[in-house]
Amino acid sequence: MKNRTRRLGRNFFSLVWTGVRRNYDNLDDNIAKRLGETDADNPVEIHLSRMFSEVFQRHTKDQADRLFIVGTRTTTPSLKKVSSRPVKPWFFSRIFLVLAMSFAMLMLLLYIFKSNKAIPGLIFIGSLAVPFSLLMMFFEINVYQNISVLQMLTTFLMGGILSLLVTMTFYMMLPIRTSVSIESALIVGVVEELAKCVVIIIFINSYKLNYIFNGVLIGAAIGAGFSVFESSGYVSEYGLATIFTRSFQAIGTHTIWAAIMGGAIILGKTRKKPFVLKDFFTRPKFYVFFLIVIALHTFWDWDIPNTGLEVSLLQEAIDVVIGWFLIFIMIDAGLREVKTLQGQQIIIHRKKKKEIKKR
Predict the structure, then answer these.
(1) Is the pLDDT confidence value at 4 over 50?
(2) DSSP letter (8 states) at residue 348
(3) Contact present, 216 and 263 (Cβ < 8 Å)
(4) How far apart are alpha carbons 291 and 278 in whole angstroms?
(5) Any stretches that span the bilayer, and where are they (predicted)?
(6) For residue range 296-349, what is the model confidence (pLDDT) as tens digits?
(7) Spatial CB neighbours of 285, under 8 Å, sequence gap ≥ 6
(8) In this predicted model, what pLDDT tens digit does every residue of 136-166 receive, in sequence order?
(9) What string of DSSP letters covers 181-250?
């Protein structure tokens, strides 16, 4: 009886998950296909719910090495050779595992051996682990392979610091209260996201990038740098315990928000031309995503009156879900862009062909 109940439970869960996955993929694609240049009625089969299927697979050292030999004149593939298959990043999980193990060993040094010399390492690795792992994921996803590791790291360091400098400049111009009311949260959201947006535009224009995946990667690099340096600064202000919360919260904050904005900047500019001030106000494909990112940041920072930890955690969970959904939309739109530029015919699964014929 127990085995039968378990089997029924597994079958029910499998049925529910299949329905959720199909609807999710369809919703994601329905939005993404309206961002591209292809016919809105032309479906695409991407299945982003399977995106992380390679994480737990075994990979060789040569496969890992090939990920880093990109972005040079001899290793950047032509547009015809760019892969338009669904992206399945995996190496980022190894980066996270190494950083997480390093963090755990530093904790042993601090709490078992009472070595205060481990504190700077804890702050650095704790701030770096999640944002940098996410950055590596977006580096893998960039199917054009036209941005080198050196460019990525330069953008990560210089772009992260520059975005903080621009942020502090804006803060000097606007009245920021120490409270976390909706007004203050909105000002913080506008200031920080606008600062990152300005820096992302500078780097995209200077690198002369034109593809959605490129914009997402550059945005993620600047957002990750911003996140690392900001988290490190919060530790000096609020104590070491801050790193334990901010390190995990980074899965849905600055890196993700900036990646969305980077993709939106590419969507909002004229192809093979720089993003200009006019595009900021006249391109809905850009400013709609920009306003959504500001709303996500505001909602994250807002301390709703007369609520406790449960509501705060719910806010963060909602933020993370929406943020990642927008990331998947960008990835979907990026794959559509590859197919459009290559002039390929979008492949439709047999099941969907039958559904279309019935309609």
Answers:
(1) yes
(2) -
(3) yes
(4) 16
(5) 91-113, 119-141, 153-173, 185-204, 211-229, 249-268, 280-300, 312-331
(6) 999 999 988 888 889 999 999 999 999 999 999 999 899 889 988 887 544 444
(7) 35, 264, 267, 268
(8) 999 999 999 999 999 999 999 999 999 999 9
(9) -HHHHHHHHHHHHHHHHHHHHHHHHHHT--SHHHHHHHHHHHHHHHHHHHHHHHHHHH-THHHHHHHHHG
Amino acid at 50: R
Q: What tokens were used for 112?
A: 């078992």
**DSSP state letter for 159:** I
Distance CA 285, CA 269 (A): 9
| Residue among 336, 343, 356, 337 nearest 45 (CA) | 336
Q: Which helix (H) or strand (E) holds 292?
A: helix 284-301
Cα 303 to Cα 287: distance, rounded to the nearest angstrom: 26
pTM of the model: 0.85
Q: Is the dihedral of CA 100, 101, 104, 106 positive or negative?
A: negative
**How high is the pLDDT of residue 238?**
85
